[in-house]
User: Which sequence fits this backbone?
């Protein structure tokens, strides 16, 4: 009886070669996932870099033309060209938060690229930064992967700054309030309606039941 039991134990015991093979497969799978996320992140970074350079070059070139011409009409035409210019990703502006090293473009609300799976997402009912006392609401993923653009938002504190480049102007916002809400499919935004606002929304890090909301108020426009 004891011999039969021993044989059964030997029968189901994995050999060292099998264990090594399984370990190799797991490691290769892990490397593949890591590489996929890494190269996708690099791809998005490269697009952002080229789009940003393209945007700056357009501004520079058009300003030089306007200065050379010297007419008011030409300057007004330049501003319209800058606002309406859309690059390969369709960016019309950029969100920048230096404290966490974030600079990410955003597109028009009606664009097919205004998708949280592709970019930071401009909520359809939000206002653009240029609207006085409006609320520019931006959502983004946190966690892991190349599309987790808001992964480091948890490092922000009241008093930190965020900037938006839009319509050839730079909007400076200061964070005034940070709070969490349960994930219910809707977001309650608590803000001062007498102030122009930037609202950032993302899933709370290490908590799959809540989302974090960051309220920032406009301090100046340059």
Assistant:
């Amino acid at each position: 009886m004891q011999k039969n039991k021993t044989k059964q134990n030997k029968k189901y015991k994995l050999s060292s070669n099998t264990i090594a093979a399984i370990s190799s497969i797991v490691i290769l799978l892990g490397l593949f996932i890591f590489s996929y996320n890494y190269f996708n992140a690099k791809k998005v970074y490269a697009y952002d870099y080229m789009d940003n350079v393209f945007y700056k070059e357009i501004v520079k070139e058009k300003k030089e033309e306007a200065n050379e011409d010297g007419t008011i009409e030409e300057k007004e035409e330049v501003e319209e060209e800058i606002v309406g210019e859309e690059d390969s990703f369709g960016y019309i502006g950029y969100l920048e938060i230096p404290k966490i090293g974030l600079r990410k473009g955003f597109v028009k609300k009606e664009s097919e690229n205004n998708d949280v799976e592709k970019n930071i997402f401009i909520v359809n009912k939000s206002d653009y930064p240029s609207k006085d006392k409006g609320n520019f609401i931006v959502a983004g993923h946190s966690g892991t992967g190349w599309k987790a653009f808001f992964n480091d938002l948890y490092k922000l504190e009241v008093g930190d700054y965020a900037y938006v480049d839009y319509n050839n102007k730079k909007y400076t916002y200061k964070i005034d309030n940070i709070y969490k809400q349960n994930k219910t499919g809707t977001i309650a935004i608590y803000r001062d309606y007498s102030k122009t606002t930037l609202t950032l929304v993302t899933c709370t890090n290490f908590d799959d039941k809540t989302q974090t909301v960051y309220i920032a108020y406009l301090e100046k426009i340059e």
